[in-house]
Design goal:
The chain is built from two helices and 13 strands; from the N terminus they run H-E-E-E-E-E-E-E-E-E-E-E-E-E-H. The chain has two domains: about 50 residues, no CATH class; about 180 residues, Jelly Rolls. The strands form two sheets. Strands 1, 2, 4, 5, 7, 10, 11 and 13 form an eight-stranded antiparallel beta sheet that branches. Strands 3-6-12-8-9 form a five-stranded antiparallel beta sheet, with no helix packed on it. The protein is globular and about 55 Å long. By secondary structure, the protein is an alpha+beta fold. The protein binds calcium ion (2 copies). The site of one calcium ion has 6 residues, from strand 13. It comes from Algisphaera agarilytica.
Length: about 230
């Protein structure tokens, strides 16, 4: 008993809190409703191919159909329908058709939200680019420890601002938004992915970060530990 017991209790308390964030899942945009004009939504969960996979959970895109391909050879589909590579850092390209709106002026900008669920080896978070542009905001929606050598399941969120100059060419029609990302090493399993886009003529949507400030979360955890330690002392 004594301090050791308090520490164990505090750790238990943290474990009790953990499911709060661990149960977090993908979120819907708050700045626009899925399905309204100028927006697209596509989501994959059970992959049947690692080359040219089309969305199976959600597919609302008036410009065409999005497509996901693993570009390092040797990856395969797991029994659970994820894309896994045992021998190399897998690398992905996802193309999403977007309207190239040129009237009244070629100044339509795209706000995009990308969410990725990985298992095992994690994403190289700095590698996640849309049309070569890095995210303007990111969040970790959830993290769950998997048993054995499974590592962790991680849900991550990325917000992109893509100016017209980075995807339009002045010719009316459809242009691809190209998402690229890779794993930090072998043994990443791509479990789930979603892309929401919204185009508008002037500026970007101010989509809020879906996760509370890390500082306030840390304070909450620290407060719980201090409280418990005092009680037991
Ligand atoms: Ca065009
Ligand atoms: Ca899956």
């Amino acid at each position: 008993m004594g301090p050791k017991f308090s520490t164990r209790l505090a750790l238990g308390m943290i474990a009790c809190f953990a499911p709060l964030s661990a149960s977090a899942a993908f979120v819907s945009p708050t700045s626009w409703s899925r399905g309204i004009g100028g927006t697209t939504y596509q989501e994959w969960d059970v992959f049947s191919t690692n080359s040219g996979a089309t969305p199976d959970v959600g597919n609302v895109n008036g410009n065409g159909t999005a497509s996901l391909t693993e570009t390092v050879s040797g990856s395969f589909i797991t029994s659970g329908g994820n894309i896994y590579h045992a021998g190399a850092a897998s690398s992905f390209t996802v193309t999403t058709p977007e309207a190239d709106v040129t009237a009244p002026a070629p100044d339509h900008n795209v706000t995009a939200i990308v969410q990725i669920r990985s298992q095992g080896t994690e994403l190289d978070y700095s590698s996640v680019l849309l049309n070569g542009i890095a995210a303007v905001d990111t969040a970790e929606l959830g993290r769950i420890a998997l048993g054995g050598f499974g590592g962790e399941l991680v849900d991550s969120w990325f917000l992109f601002n893509i100016p017209y100059a980075a995807f339009g060419d002045g010719i009316p029609g459809v242009e691809d938004l190209t998402l690229t990302f890779n794993a930090t090493g072998a043994h990443m399993s791509l479990d789930r992915l979603s892309i929401d886009t919204a185009i508008q003529p002037f500026g970007f949507y101010a989509e809020p970060n879906p996760v509370p400030e890390p500082a306030s979360l840390a304070l909450l955890g620290l407060g719980a530990i201090t409280m418990l330690t005092r009680r037991r002392a």
